[in-house]
Amino acid sequence: MVGIKHPTNGNLVSKLPHILVLVGPTASGKTAMALSIAEKIPSEIISADSRQIFKHLTIGTAKPSKTELKQVPHHFIDLLEPDQKFNAGDFQEQGRKTISQILERKKLPIVVGGTGLYVQAIVDGFFEQPEISGEVRKLLEDRLEHEGKDALYKELQSIDPESALTMDSTKFRRVIRALEIFHETGTPISQFHKQHKVNTMYDAHFFGLNWERSVLYERINKRVDKMFAEGFLNEVKQLKESGFDDRFQSLQTVGYKEAFAYLRSEISKERMIELMKQNTRRFAKRQMTWFRKEERIHWFDISSEDQIEQIAKKIINQL
Predict the structure, then answer these.
(1) Chain centroid offset of residue 143 CA
(2) Which of 38, 45, 172, 207 is a Cys-bridge partner for 149, taking CB atoms 3.0 to 4.6 Å apart?
(3) Which region among 65-74, 193-202, 305-314 has the lowest average model confidence (pLDDT)?
(4) CA 55 to CA 48: how far, in whole Å?
(5) Are 76 and 208 in the same domain?
(6) Shared domain check, 75 and 87
(7) Domain annotation covers residue 10
(8) What is the Cα–Cα distance from 49 to 318, expressed in whole angstroms?
(9) How close are the terminal C-alpha atoms of the chain, in Å?
């Protein structure tokens, strides 16, 4: 395990407030790791997950259980209705306020998440996005309607393959946003991210759990089976009865979109489960593509959940 690098001289302790950042793909054990650490030192957990913030999306987003939520204070879970909007800029502003409040309580903020953009926003800040003209936006909206999502994603792959690698082609709002910025400025969004001057407010210690790919994929498959055993399909039916479906951005996500397709009789139940596993594995791969670019992460190789307790102790020792 490589020692923690401080933004100051290697022999000096940073005077910036310390925060802990636990990252990794879905089903990697981030929640269990955070809870294990929080049991040992006074901490509060900030969920950097773009879907756990929405109410009623519980089983499908693998939220901590009610018991786990009572164990340690959690933030950014169950705050919004599925039809409300929330983005990385909102998370940066509100998340940093929350970190300040946790620090005032003399506790350690633990940022836990698989949404790389949210982690980047809260730790380093977010680049100021350029204003987009109505003409550019309307052009892309028209193309979306007439050409479809795949055509726009292919264009993004052509002009900005680096960003395309980190995006789900079905989450067309992010794809359109990247295309808007390119067409308005002539500069890929990935280049804006690189040019962004990091606003260092914290001494952030990054750690991640690194599973062998085949083992992680098997964990994902088992998680999907467990979701159905816990009543995931009933959760989606209740969302539909409440007027929420995959028209809303919050539900245009792996798991829910396949379930809504099944409820519309577009696919069979067997195909729904197959697609959920397949698309979740692809999602995990994109998450790792994002996190592999983050050089501050210290990765722990892990092959069993039994190792989480031991790794948690090692992380505390590093702090």
Answers:
(1) 28
(2) 172
(3) 193-202
(4) 15
(5) yes
(6) yes
(7) no
(8) 25
(9) 13
Range of the domain at 176: 134-195
Cβ-proximal residues to 259 (8 Å cutoff; 6+ apart), any chain: 60, 232, 233, 236, 272, 276
Domain match, 87 and 146 both: no
What is the percent of the chain with per-residue pLDDT over 70, rounded to a whole number? Answer: 91
Domain ends where: 170, 195, 220? 195
List pLDDT tens digits, range 19-59.
999 999 999 999 999 999 999 999 999 999 999 999 999 99
- Give the β-pairing of 108-113 and 203-211: unpaired
**Are the C-beta atoms of residues 76 and 88 closer than 8 Å to each other?**
no
Q: Residue 3 domain-assigned? A: no
Q: How far is CA 119 from CA 89, 99, 113, 199, in A?
A: 11, 13, 7, 13
Angstrom distance (rounded) from CA 214 to CA 59: 24
Q: Residue 15: CA atoms inside 13 Å, Cβ hemisphere, count?
A: 0
CB 25 within 8 A of CB 284: yes
Identify the CA nearest to 292 among candidates 166, 118, 124. 166
- CATH number (domain holding residue 172): 1.10.20.140
Looking at the fold, whether 271 and 311 belong to one and the same domain comes out as yes
Calculate the CA dihedral of residues 42, 305, 31, 237 and round it to 10 degrees.
-150
Q: Clarify whether residues 163 and 76 are in a common domain.
A: no
DSSP 8-state class, residue 246 = T
Distance from C-alpha of 113 to C-alpha of 221, rounded to nearest angstrom: 20
125 CB neighbour count, 10 Å cutoff: 17
| 190 and 42 inside one domain | no
- Lowest average pLDDT, out of 5-14, 173-182, 251-260, goes to 5-14
Instruction: Provide the whole-model pTM.
Output: 0.79
Residue 180 and residue 195: Cα distance in Å, rounded? 18
Rounded CA separation 119/202 (Å):
13
Exposed e or buried b for every residue in 174-187, given b needs 16+ CB within 10 A? bbbbbbbbbbbeee
Residues 181 and 303 in one domain: no
